[in-house]
Write a structure and sequence with these properties.
By secondary structure, the chain is an alpha/beta fold. Helix content is 24%, strand content 24%. The structure holds adenosine-5'-triphosphate and magnesium ion.
Length: 556
């Protein structure tokens, strides 16, 4: 066991502690059980950090198991993406399993249930099944097929498997209690017929597929899972989970414990909605940097550490709630502030000519990579007569609060000299196209005497810098609870992506590599886009702004 965690243990870890103390278990086995019907999102990360985190901290292990019982919606692409995402988050599974590995065993246990009079083949149509089920206030009615002789059930179930019956014509159902106040116990379906599907693992071998509620407990038990952790919507399914294991000949009986799922403001998380965004091309794909998917967050520039930290910070409880997007953003901000080398990039370039700087001169200046961490070293900047500054860093006139360049005023070029603006050159329409300045050669590393310099601005050499495209991302949705009282598509944020195609970045950024993250001083945190960058083509994603300015308008 690793050292005691600084924060109090969540209720699940407390249960595990007492199960270890009482001798009920000596090692702990968990699993993360995604259905391969989409990419993982930040909500799944919560479950991954919980399950794999427990396996790391206790003597234990965690399996990655694909809950692949619905081949109509599942694909190998998703299997591979999920494996990549779990590894990227920093975890390795003890064993890789598929629920479909257990299809033969699951079939055998179903035969056991039939033999024990605990399951029957039902010929009701799906509509009739619904009709017979009853409601929350009314008990259900028993199927007319409920008391079929065991031999007949065995024969029909075998023939279901053999492919003799059409989709929807028959199901295998548990024989529990149609009057139960818990609808999940009203003779739930265990198997359904699905012809013509090619399963990504089992191909065309099966035409009957086990239901999730039947498959899950048995898969857990086969793997020797001690604690089966799932989200709260399965609380009402727990009696069925226990019923299945109590009625078949398997010794292991994992303990199901529910916790609340993660909901995050300003985004959507259900796979149905995420799939819709991808299919309707509202985003560029599952890894669009605006998506709350792990693949999207990775491409956006999030670090695995920041996601793990976020999942630990929000904690594990049974109370439902929605987490503010700012909590996730602060997690990456905090991490990048500590580790990201500083660079200069001008997103909206305005040319500045230093009139008294020799045209042929190119001065190499050394600049530290991080103000608080010297171990991150330094890089070379090049100052030339023509440079770019950001258009927002100049005004012809402004009051004292404006800490940037004004006509006749002085400002420090970050890591270089103080310049004074002498002239703003305009085109016939009155737009400023160029600034003419003079620099004071005596101001490298110290301020001029007796004069006030307004502030410090960043810059990039016009001749030694590099062109870049910069993508400014914002929240995917413009409302905190997308789709509340309407279609979530109407709540998509039309300004979630702003493309800036004429940016200039300092020379050192020509060597930027995918996976590196930088602070562009005064602008935010950025990384090279993994998909659209190419040699000689720099495309940067904004990971997150420097401060949380959501809803506060322009920051200055
Ligand atoms: P969705 O509702 O987004 O489609 P799901 O629950 O159907 O998700 P699964 O692939 O079945 O997705 O989930 C795998 C595991 O991840 C489950 O144990 C599930 O409870 C957990 N999980 C899914 N979404 C969240 C979430 N938002 N917060 C915490 N855990 C989650
Ligand atoms: Mg699911």
């Amino acid at each position: 066991m690793s050292g005691a965690p600084a924060t109090p243990k969540n209720f699940i870890r407390q249960i595990i502690d007492s199960d270890l103390q009482s001798g009920r278990h000596s090692t702990i086995h968990t699993r993360f059980p995604p259905e391969p019907n989409g990419y993982l999102h930040i909500g799944h990360a919560k479950s991954i950090v919980l399950n794999f985190g427990i396996a790391q901290d206790y003597p234990g292990s965690c399996n990655l198991r694909f809950d692949d019982t619905n081949p109509a919606k599942e694909e190998e692409e998703f299997v591979e993406a999920i494996k990549e995402d779990v590894r990227w988050l920093g975890y390795e599974w003890a064993e890789l399993r598929f629920a479909s590995d257990y299809f033969e065993q699951l079939y055998g246990y179903a035969v056991e249930l039939i033999n024990a009079g605990k399951a029957f083949v039902c010929d009701l149509t799906p509509e009739q099944v619904r009709e017979y089920r009853g409601t929350l206030t009314e008990p259900g009615r028993e199927s007319p097929f409920r008391d079929r002789p065991i031999e007949e059930n065995l024969d029909l179930f075998r023939r279901m498997r053999a492919g003799e019956f059409a989709d929807g014509s028959r199901t295998l159902r548990a024989r529990i209690d149609m009057a139960s106040p818990n609808i999940n116990l009203r003779d739930p379906a265990l198997y359904r017929i699905r012809h013509g599907l090619i399963h990504h693992q089992t191909g065309a071998e099966w035409c009957i597929y086990p239901m999730y509620d039947y498959t899950h407990p048995i898969s857990d038990a086969i793997e020797g899972i001690t604690h089966s952790l799932c989200t709260l919507e399965f609380e009402d399914h727990r009696p069925l989970y226990d019923w299945v294991l109590d009625n078949i000949s398997i010794a292991c009986h994992p303990r199901q414990i529910e916790f609340s799922r993660l909901n995050l403001e300003y985004t959507v998380m259900s796979k149905r909605r995420l799939t819709q965004l991808v299919q309707e091309k509202r985003v560029s794909g599952w890894n669009d940097p605006r998506m709350p998917t792990i693949a999207g967050l990775r491409r956006r520039g999030y670090t695995p550490e920041s996601i793990r930290h976020f999942c630990e910070a929000i904690g594990i409880t049974k109370s439902e709630g929605t987490v503010e997007m700012g909590v996730l953003e602060n997690s990456i901000r905090g991490h990048l502030d500590a580790i990201a080398p500083r660079r200069m990039a001008v997103l909206d370039p305005l040319k500045l000519v230093i009139s008294n700087y020799p045209a042929e001169q190119a001065e190499v200046l050394q600049a530290g990579n991080h103000p608080k961490d010297e171990t991150l070293g330094s890089r070379e900047l090049v100052l030339t007569r023509e440079i770019y500054i950001d258009r927002a860093d100049f005004r012809e006139e402004a009051n004292k609060k404006y800490k940037r360049l004004v006509l006749g005023g002085e400002v420090r070029l970050r890591n270089a000299y103080v310049v004074r603006c002498d002239q703003a050159v305009k085109d016939p329409d009155g737009n400023i196209v160029e600034l003419h300045c003079t620099y004071d050669p005596d101001t490298l590393g110290h301020n001029p005497e007796g004069r006030k310099v307004r502030g410090v601005i960043h810059w990039v050499s016009a001749t030694r810098g590099h062109k870049a495209e910069v993508r400014l991302y914002d929240r995917l949705c413009k409302s905190a609870e997308p789709g509340k009282g309407g279609n979530f598509l109407d709540d998509l944020n039309p300004e979630s992506l702003r493309l800036l195609s004429d940016c200039m970045v300092e020379p050192a950024l020509a060597q930027a590599a995918v996976g590196e993250r930088y602070q562009f001083e005064r602008e935010g945190y950025f990384c090279l886009d993994s998909e659209d960058s190419a040699p000689g083509k720099l495309v940067f994603n904004r990971i997150v702004s420097l401060r949380d300015s959501w809803g506060k308008g322009e920051d200055d």
